[in-house]
Amino acid sequence: MSFELTVLGSNAALPSFGRHLSAQILNVDSSLFLIDCGEGTQIRMMDFKIKMNKIERVFISHLHGDHILGLAGLIMTLGLQGRSKPLYIYSPSGLERIIDVQLDGNYAFPVHFIVTDTRKKGLLFENKSVEVFSIPLLHRVPCNGFLFVQKTKSPNMRKDKITEYKIPYNKIIEIKNGADFLTQKGQVIPNSELTVIPAPPLKYAYCSDTAYFKEIIPMVKGVDLLYHEATFMHDLLDKAVKTMHSTARQAAEIARRAEVKKLLLGHFSARYKNLSPLLDEAKLVFENTLLSVEGLTLSI
Amino acid sequence: MSFELTVLGSNAALPSFGRHLSAQILNVDSSLFLIDCGEGTQIRMMDFKIKMNKIERVFISHLHGDHILGLAGLIMTLGLQGRSKPLYIYSPSGLERIIDVQLDGNYAFPVHFIVTDTRKKGLLFENKSVEVFSIPLLHRVPCNGFLFVQKTKSPNMRKDKITEYKIPYNKIIEIKNGADFLTQKGQVIPNSELTVIPAPPLKYAYCSDTAYFKEIIPMVKGVDLLYHEATFMHDLLDKAVKTMHSTARQAAEIARRAEVKKLLLGHFSARYKNLSPLLDEAKLVFENTLLSVEGLTLSI
To answer: How many independent structural domains does chain B possess?
Structure first.
């Protein structure tokens, strides 16, 4: 049961100091979701040996170039590699036309564009493992983040109890669904003795690009990992406000107030060669903070 | 007086084996010309420490994605870096709309799109150092190559003769333009004794993408360096014909018949990990052949 994040690009606006543009891969039980797709994303996936054709769905936060300019090339490459299965792309309105023009309307396999509502939280997709929601962000253009929530698992059956009470195979599903067990001698074994409560479902929230936006706090409450953009240090707050980005301190403030487990900073301005000061600034507010490192896979 | 080529990307269609998509920088007396601009070109320029803002003009061969998908990102980055001087982009018809849609019409500095005629050779641009011509190629969509021709230099003045005949400074320009010199004693010194003929002007031809197309032979006759696409080995001639690409042997055949000085192969299919067989195949027909190596600068 995997729930793993790989950052492919961590820079804002333009590449610098070996850092690339926004893109992440979330692996949920071997389904790959691509989150944003800046220029060069396909090359980063090759660098990190990610099997591109396993990408089922793409989630695009907004239509600024540094989040979308890798998408046409990726679709071309998937087609040239022989993909036939469909690709589903979720984004604010307008992306289909941008991709259409670049590819001159030539798609080698079905590509479905699904328009998100950037004004309120909404369920975009679910399968047996996960639900994906859009969450509103506050940026210069319509923009949403994404919340990935593992589905609640059934309790696990204790194998030792199967042996101890000689539980027949056909009873296991009802016990996993909450039933007690009646032995042949008429003894009632309570469900709580027979099962183990599984780990709570994991949650990952992606918030980029956005100004400081306290309305998201209840939506990302308690998530296991919060990715929040931290384009600037707080001494450039004026610039952050003007461009509708966040500072490292503001990202940490959201993490602290939302009581998340862990904060991952990213979307760094090309002006910063050394990122340690951004990390230090955030840690003063929220200790369990990491910097995005491209190619590193985090188990959430 | 520089006339140097740096290959930024050498692969066809999609990146593979660490090779990137079509893009080259030609440095002519410190003016930088970008030839084609596949996805990731700006990142390759950063990798190779090329000063992007020095690019004056961009020459695009055709509108397939692997030759143009880096352009919108490059324009964005130049704008973010504060560029104010104009950029001139030469390409077959249709590029302006593709870039416009990606940038939502927002240009931070003047970008001029100039449409080429892909059916016949034509002068696109000249300055004091160079003339640039489009040359027709044969591909699935309108496509042209480019021919860069250094301008003929004036003869160089021999410094030893200035001393020997006490030639005044104000006579030098007319001698460089062909005049003889009359000494104070009335002796006529012929121009041929006073000047050295400069090296012949250098020529670089870029031919990608194209099927084998013998009509280009007179246009690239005797060039110092011919870049010719070699997407396939000759055993895949059928595939080359069908997709309107060339084989390594065909590229060498063009080089041999055009009596060029040197051939540079590129635009390699993603199927080839090892490129030596392509080089060997071409060398059987034309010995002075090189493979494109990304990041390597060739003095033409």
So the answer is: 2
Q: What percent of chain B has pLDDT over 70?
A: 100
Confidence of residue B119 (pLDDT cuts 50, 70, 90): very high
Is B46 an 8 Å CB contact of chain A? Answer: yes
CATH number at residue A286: 3.60.15.10
Residues A37-46: what's their mean pLDDT? 98
pLDDT for res B152? 85
Residues B240 and B210 in one domain: yes
Same domain, A163 and A146: no
Query: For residues B190 and B180, is the Cβ–Cβ distance under 8 A?
Result: yes
**Can you say whether residue A82 is alpha, beta or left, with left for phi > 0 and alpha for psi between -120 and 50 degrees?**
left
Pick the catalytic residue: A36, A47, A66, A100? A66
Q: Is A141 helix (H, G, I), strand (E, B) or coil?
A: coil
Domain enclosing residue A111, as ranges: 3-153+199-299
Q: What ipTM does the predicted assembly reach?
A: 0.91
Task: Say if A52 is an interface residue toward chain B (CB within 8 Å).
Answer: no
Task: Say if residue A236 is in the same domain as residue A170.
Answer: no
- Kindly report, residue by residue over B267-288, the tens digit of the pLDDT: 999 999 999 999 999 999 999 9
Q: Flag whether pLDDT at B155 surpasses 90.
A: no
- Among the partner residues B13, B46, B77, nearest to A80 by beta-carbon distance: B13
pLDDT at B1 exceeding the cut of 80: no
Beta carbons of A59 and A33 less than 8 angstroms apart: yes
Residues B41 and B176 in one domain: no
pLDDT for residue B265 is more than 90: yes
B181 and B60 inside one domain: no
The C-alpha atoms of residue B62 and residue B184 are separated, in whole angstroms, by 61
**Domain check: are A145 and A165 in the same one?**
no
Q: Is A66 assigned a catalytic role?
A: yes
- Tell me: do A170 and A85 sit in the same domain: no
**B188-229 pLDDT, tens digit each:** 999 999 999 888 899 999 999 999 999 999 999 999 999 999
Q: Are residues B118 and B242 in the same domain?
A: yes
